[in-house]
Amino acid sequence: MDRTTFLARIEEYHMGGWRLALINATSAMSTEEQPGGSFDVVWAFVKDNAFEYLREEIVPGDEVPSISASFPAAFLYENEIRELFGINVTGLNVDLGGQLYKTAKKIPFSPSAIRARLEANAAAGIASASPTPPAGPHGAAHAASSPAPTSAPTAGKTA
Amino acid sequence: MKRTVIPFGPQHPVLPEPIVLDLILEDERVVDAVPTIGYIHRGLEMMVERVEYTEMGFVVERICGICSFMHGMGYCLSLETIMNVEVPDRAKWLRLIWAEISRIQSHLLWLGLGADAFGFENLFMHCWRMREEILDIFEKTTGGRVIHSVNRIGGVKRDVSDAELAAILVRLEELGKAFKKTASVFATDPSIAHRLVGVGVLSPEDALSTASVGPMARASGLATDTRLGGANLYDQIDFQPVVETAGDCLARVAVRLREVEQSIGIIRQAIDKMPKGEGLPLENRPRGNPAGEAFTRLEQPRGEVVYYVKANGTKYLERFRARTPTFANIPAMIQLVKGCELADVPNIILTIDPCISCTER
Amino acid sequence: MANPLTLPMVRRSLRNLVARPATRKYPYEIRPSFGGARGKIEFDVTTCNYCMLCMRRCPAEAIRVSREDRIWSIEHLRCIACNVCVEVCSKKSLSMSNQPRKPQTPADGVDGQRPGHEEWHLAAPDTTGAPCPDAETPAAKA
Known about the structure:
The complex is a heterotrimer. Chain A contains 4 helices and 5 strands. By secondary structure, chain A is of the alpha+beta class. The radius of gyration of chain A is 17 Å and the shape is elongated. Chain B is globular, with a radius of gyration of 20 Å. Chain B has one domain (42-328): Cytochrome-c3 Hydrogenase, chain B, CATH 1.10.645.10. In chain B, the strands form 3 sheets. In chain B, strands 1-2-3 form a 3-stranded antiparallel β-sheet. A 3-stranded antiparallel β-sheet of chain B has the order 6-7-8. The two termini of chain B are 39 Å apart. Chain C has a single domain (33-141), classed as Alpha-Beta Plaits, CATH 3.30.70. Chain C has helices at 8-18, 53-57, 84-88, 138-141; strands spanning 40-43, 63-66, 71-75, 94-97, 117-121. In chain C, the strands form 2 sheets. In chain C, strands 2-3-5 form a 3-stranded antiparallel β-sheet, with no helix packed on it. A two-stranded antiparallel ribbon of chain C has the order 1-4. Chain C is elongated and about 75 Å long. The relative contact order of chain C is 0.18. Chains A and B meet through strand 1, strand 2 and helix 3 of A and strand 3, strand 6, strand 7, strand 8 and helix 10 of B.
């Protein structure tokens, strides 16, 4: 992501009197271009009845600047995406140090964790989503020989 | 000065649900508060991996027992947006009526809990007695007191006959009259004023910078109300958001008191305007699997809720996210707690109407 | 400020002394359920054709159906009474009773089963379809 333009646009929303509505991350499964998976992160703002959002594609390990300088309330969302998705958010105004959610598993929504869960479900014969989703905005489904399943745990460590 | 750390929660007499605030005190004054949530994190968002999108709505409804109707409705609205489903008119009106009834129910519940927190046990019981009648209306019309399960993608499962709607309206108007008496106690009782006036004042600027929503923001003079956007037939309803300017705990109580009466008025208008008759279509069930994404905003009793749904063309959604109003109000709560007296902390925490189940999902 | 001479709460309290209580004496006086209330799933084993649709669609994973063992079972404590199984059942074997399920304690789980577990065996294709006596739990008897 382009840090400077991103922060400039966040500042525009801040100066325009917008209210932070949501920071949401979605894990995308590994693709051939992105074997470790990626995150689709959305920063959404509300002003009166208007709703707008910024969208960035984040690769595990990418540094995401905190927007808590402009929007102090962002710290909860940023701590959340760090704890649940393992996205590396830097420069938080309130760093809860992984203490926001008491989850049994650390980083439950990282692409590798989701893949591991879905593969375990498939192995146990439990009906669940396929670990290799169909072609979508984040790329094509894998061939069986794709290196993605083996590289996914490595991505989990770097994230 | 020596600092003391007092853990507030997870179990505390005023808290219906577990949340921890580590209060850092100097003498009796709170200087900082560190929240920890996650005691009832159930991973409902993760369940999209195992529950098909057609049934996920019934799971989403169980995020919280108080906003359950709105959660189910928000989920269905998101998928209706993705799948381009036109919901029949009568179903839309029924959803609006149920949504407003659940707002009354939630506010009565909160007013009771609030009264309990500032030590007015009697008022607590009066509020909950009235709430019981609302729950009976829900059980009669939807089949469930708390979890209604009437929303389905494309419409609603049950119809309510016109005669029954008229009876509900009569019941609600009677309830509104009885509520006026209870409301006057909240507004005029000197002991309540003593506990709440000037406590936990949130200025309009702070309300914006902490991104607070719902009655919290409206009590600070911000006229934010997602219903003003006009979606879900609210453009056909004549109403003004309830705004108070004081920004203290009593203003937040007053907003909710007035919203109960406002909701009864909205239901009256809705029953008047909805298409009448038996056997009108209620559902327009979609075919195939959803693909795409949608953001849906609704005004829940506690404030604005944002749903994000992403579907990839399979039976299982890729992501479901509910940003609930309490999650948005936690920064404001922390800001209010800083600088207040220890004895005021329970009242301040309760006046944001915390719903921890919603926050953690 | 309220006029303390009017004493609104005192007046109301005095009225409450002579009025009927707002509550019921619950275990002795039970309010009848409303007609359309969703209480408890009931199963009629005689008509079931083991299509397994109810198991696949159950969001709470409360229903288990096994074609090989000819068992149909439900965990009432997992069931969220959403009515999905009743709606999808093509044979109308499932119905929703408006009576709520009974509370369960761990002691109610007999034969090593979880409390609230209820199961039906269809021993042979020509069975009369009565629930298997061995598998009957207090929930089944209730």
